[in-house]
Amino acid sequence: MTRTAAHAAVVAGVDESEAALAAVRWAAEEAANRRCRLLLFHAGMFDTADLGRHEHTKYAPLPLEGAHRWLKRAAWVAEATAPGVPVEYLVRLGIAGELLVELSGEAELLVLGSHSIGGLRGVAIGSIALRVAASAHCPVVVVRGRVKPDGPVVAGFDGDDRVLEFAFEAAQSRRVPVVAVHAWHEGLMAEPEVAEAAERSERQALRHRVETLSGRYPEVTARSRAVRDHSAAQALMSFDDAQLVVIGTRGRGPVAGGLFGSTGNRLLTQSSCPVAVVH
């Protein structure tokens, strides 16, 4: 059940945490929706001091023995969640964030838990998730909060059609509606007439994008919501019943070594449901 490449796979990061198992369940269902395989991945780091303490004992742990145990448990969870999905696993030595970004060049999707330990001892996966979300070459889903299977997919539209396309595809595979949300700010000093014209223009542009995609996904019920002078993160988190929030990476601001917007940073740390970051 080992594998060295992530081509045509949903990749889930795995460690000993419950958060990682939640990510594995989500990833297994997504692999079933996409009709592709699931690759369970762990990045391991040797602690030479620990190895030295045990090297002369009868019950010395094998290098990465724990990693294989966690991966086997994750494989059982995946197979119980989505029977029939091909499950493979991969262990590599190195720093989790760097290796996940490398794998993202071949994966269809990366799926991570939100609050677990990965790769380096004592390094929260929250920082790894932010780094990977900012730097990956494929979409990244951070599984957090509660998964609400009947809720809509909510897309934060920032002008990139790939965000909407990902949201429509996710909504179609789940047979749920999609809500496209766009927040903008035209400036505090704008004249009322200018502000009203800008609002009409933003609403029309968003409606046009949504209608265009609706033609390609006729089975998906879609609606749009444009808000002015509003926090995009707050607007997206206002949908308490959302099962997935989809955002892009056009925001600015350094987070965990990559360029990522404040909207993405806030959602990845505060959202009540899984968040997908589309590159």
In short:
This protein is α/β, with parallel strands linked by helices. 41% of the residues lie in helices and 21% in strands. The protein has 9 helices and 12 strands.
How would you characterize the overall build of this protein?
The chain is an alpha/beta fold and 279 residues long. The chain folds into 2 domains: 9-143, Rossmann fold (3-Layer(aba) Sandwich); 153-277, HUPs (Rossmann fold, 3-Layer(aba) Sandwich). Helices cover 41% and strands 21% of the residues. The chain is built from 9 helices and 12 strands. It has helices at 18-34, 48-54, 65-81, 96-104, 125-135, 161-174, 192-216, 232-237, 262-270, and strands at residues 9-13, 37-44, 87-93, 109-113, 140-143, 153-156, 178-184, 222-228, 244-247, 254-255, 258-259, 275-277. A 10-stranded mixed beta sheet has the order 3-2-1-4-5-12-9-6-7-8, with helices on both faces. β10 and β11 (258-259) form a beta hairpin. α1 (18-34) packs across α3 (65-81), α4 runs parallel beside α5 (125-135) and α6 (161-174) crosses α7. The longest helix is centred in the C-terminal third of the chain and has 25 residues, at 192-216. It is elongated, with a radius of gyration of 20 Å.
